[in-house]
Prior knowledge:
With about 290 residues, the chain is of the alpha+beta class. It has helices spanning about 105-115, 125-135, 140-150, 155-175, 185-195, 255-265, 275-285; strands spanning about 10-20, 25-35, 55-65, 70-80, 200-205, 210-220, 225-230, 240-245. It contains seven helices and eight strands, in the order ββββαααααββββαα.
Amino acid sequence: KTVFGENQEFILQYYIESTNLKQPHPNYTKTKKQKVADVIPVMGEFSIEGLETGNYNFVVEIRNKENKVIASKKSFFQRSNPKAKINWNEIDKVVVEQTFVQNITSIDTLKEYINELYPISDVNEVGYAKNAVNSNDLSYMQKYFYSFWFSHNSSNPESEWNKYKEQVNYVNKMYGSQINKGYESDRGRVYLQYGAPGSVTSGVYDNDTYPYEIWHYYVMGNQRNRLFLFYNRELMGKDYKLIYSDAKGEVYISNIDMIIKNLYRGRTLLPDIDWSNKIKEDLRKEGFRY
């Protein structure tokens, strides 16, 4: 009453804001007109089932008829919701000032950083990443890059990026070539997506066999004992291609003879039975199921 006077109306607004965006979330904002009184009980609720993982403030504001904020109060909370995905259509609203991304000011460097994310990106993220890179817009790329890591670790996106960058540097060193960066190779992609394999078995190169590697993952998320078979038709260098895996979503060949044929480089059109049986036995020892 002291502020607004007797029998006057004011606006009560309450909403959820991201600590990054610093503005009301469009799906979590409510506004009410109230009459001045000594005590005004307010009841309201939001269903946050679709609210993405992140750091948020719950904000209550009192505004006058001119929509000017007279008083406000915030309460911080964190939300963990793996089922909800970030809304990539709102990238333009992301604020990168005072974040680690603000210091990345080279367009070429940022393009490379975004390209390095492909091994761990889903289909939607890949599409938006391509748009960001093709835009050639430093601000837009910064916002995409920050949003990506914020969605992976809202409490410390910079730390998450630094850990991933160390892995990228490793695969570039181990699996890179003069043609492709390590993260662009099949082995590099698998390493970044699933982590280091539990064991690696290298096939001996000889007159009949292309060089190959078998990666065995004992535990891979909710999957157990998954195998990846890479081979190198170039004989030299590091350009190993993935030709088989029993992991979900990967290249799967149910016909073992097709796998054998890919590994064979002998002078005859087809491998002989002894050679085929030897390779089959080697694969069986590594856990291949056929």
